[in-house]
Specification:
Structural class: mainly beta
Helix content: under 10%
Radius of gyration: 14 Å
Distance between the termini: 40 Å
Number of strands: 11
Shape: elongated
Order of helices and strands: EEEEEEEEEEE
Number of helices: 0
């Protein structure tokens, strides 16, 4: 069973920064892609940023402010969030496309709350 565990959320003032972390554990052969999604109250879950081997992509709303990166262990992913705005407030979810000893699947973390408010 693969588990994704996020950390790093919290309350920050507008213009501030936060760094989210996500670590995958379990019997993992490889991780093709990892990403961050977010869901604000009353809205659908949306892609924030995604990273594959050699490529990254971002939602237009976060380009130039957020940076996604993989850790050296390749089973971790980070989201550095700068110049945060109130509209960035949401639950942020980690996602990974994982190949295990049994199959290939899409896995999600439990979510971490990010609140941007003065």
């Amino acid at each position: 069973q693969v588990q994704l565990v996020e950390s790093g959320g919290g309350l920050v003032q507008p213009g501030g920064s936060l760094r989210l972390s996500c670590a995958a554990s379990g019997i993992i052969f490889s991780i093709n892609a990892m990403g961050w999604y977010r869901q604000a109250p009353g809205k659908q879950r949306e892609l924030v940023a995604r990273i594959t081997i050699g490529d990254t992509n971002y939602a237009d709303s976060v380009k130039g402010r957020f940076t996604i990166s993989r850790g050296n262990a390749r089973n971790t992913v980070y989201l550095q969030m700068n110049s945060l705005k109130p509209e960035d407030t949401a639950v942020y979810y980690c996602n990974a496309d994982v190949l295990t000893d049994r199959d290939r699947g899409d896995y999600w973390g439990q979510g971490t709350q990010v609140t941007v408010s003065s």
